[in-house]
Amino acid sequence: MMCLNVLLGMVGPWQVVIIVVLVLLLFGGKKIPELMKGLGQGMKEFKKATRDDDVGGNANPQKEIDSKSSE
């Protein structure tokens, strides 16, 4: 975690501008929204899966049994 803080601390405004320009050159302006949409969906699925793991553990086993029997 400390290594991440050091790396993020070294990124200045000019480095951010250079990174943005490189991404635009590599992917083009039309691809960026598609990439961000895919990233957002991936994060949403990840959060949902971790939430389901937390809830599915020991929270309410009867609810899980009821949902399986209604299918």
**Unreliable spans:** none
Number of helices: 4
Which range best describes the helical content: under 10%, 10-25%, 25-40%, 40-55%, 55-70% or over 70%? over 70%
Number of strands: 0
Note the gap between the termini: 44 Å
Mean pLDDT: 76
Rg, Å, rounded: 21 Å
Shape: elongated
Question: Structural class from helices and strands?
Answer: mainly alpha
Strand percentage: under 5%
Helix and strand element order: HHHH
Report the sheet with the most strands, covering strand number, pairing sense and barrel closure: none
Task: Describe this structure as you would to a colleague.
With 71 residues, the protein is mostly helical. It has a domain at 29-71. Helices cover 86% and strands 0% of the residues. It contains 4 helices and no strands. The protein has helices at 2-9, 13-27, 31-58, 61-70. The longest helix is centred in the middle third of the chain and has 28 residues, at 31-58. The chain is elongated, with a radius of gyration of 21 Å. The chain starts with a helix and ends with a helix. The relative contact order is 0.05. The mean pLDDT is 76.
From the structure above, extract its key features:
71 residues; mainly alpha; 4 helices; 0% strand
Structure summarized in a few sentences:
By secondary structure, this protein is mainly α. 86% of the residues lie in helices and 0% in strands.
Topology (elements, then pairings):
Blueprint: H1 2-9, H2 13-27, H3 31-58, H4 61-70
